[in-house]
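Aim 2 progress update. The chain analyzed this quarter is reproduced below.
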Amino acid sequence: MPVEELSLPTVTFRDGPVRVAQWLLSTALLSSRLAALIRRRGIRLIHANSVRAGLAAALAARRTHTPLVWHVRDLLPGGLRSRVVRRLAALAADRVICISQAVAARFATSDDLRRKTVVVYDGVDLRRFAPDQAACRQAREALGPGDAYPVVAIVGQIIQWKGQREFVLAAARVAKAYPGARFLVVGEAVFRTHLTRPYKEEVVRLAAELGLGDRIRFTGFCDDVRPFIAAADILALASWEEPLGVVQLEAMALGKPVVATNGGGVPEILEDGVTGLLVPPRYPEAMAHAIVALAADPDRLRRMGQAGRRRVESLFGLDSHARAVEEVYGEVLEPDRSTLGG
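Predicted structure tokens:
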């Protein structure tokens, strides 16, 4: 499969007008390059895999009369910029894929968009994320004390809305109930670093001030989160509002129960009381209470992990995700649909 790289300019919905103007110019130039690539390669369909990619692809799609599938993975905020994005999607996209009902409700706010929008949940590679007791023991041994319990992990980029601060506050409460508890903060401050690096420093200081000491480990960036999830008894998801929360799918696939905040698309994945427990966002006391309750009942913890694996197998495998996306392609390329799949 040939690959060509085109630099995608970045901007957020909170950047100032000068930065946005620079981004608009860069996006227009990128759109021209993309249109030339479409013509040169004879491309028959564009799949834009983010909101930003969709903005550039929408212009190129209109210029080249090429069908566009726009994949939306974010909970759009309010305001003028979001209205512009939605309007452009309504005009240029043939189909919009949203990764959860929560994302779709926030994005498809007009009849035109609702008619074009379909929800396709992300999928997990069930072979790569498969329970493995030997791997779990090995990952656990790498943490240090073999009798650590419970081990609780939070996985994701370090940024305010991911809730690492709230997780540390919850961890301090859990540690009072379980002095042998260990905690993993997996991830790094990699986006908007002028804000997120000071935030990480604040979280690290807070952990020290709360006396967590060597009971909490900040792993930094890692390419493979599986060993850390495998080492954990419980995965915590503390986001204020998560579009979907792929990490909870990964944890469930590995047979781990999840304690997660109930904002955004998370409740569409996690069955409260079956595959994990839901708690209110920004409420570390509730998260700590849920973790302690699960840790106190190892049989329930194990049953929830098994139920999570079954749920991912039945609904969220990578193969079923690919088939659903392929179905969208078929709808867009209706005259050529018989060629899909051979």
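DSSP finds 14 helices and ten strands in the chain. Strands lie at 46-48, 68-72, 95-98, 117-119, 151-155, 182-186, 216-220, 234-237, 258-261, 276-279. These observations will guide the mutagenesis experiments scheduled for the next reporting period.
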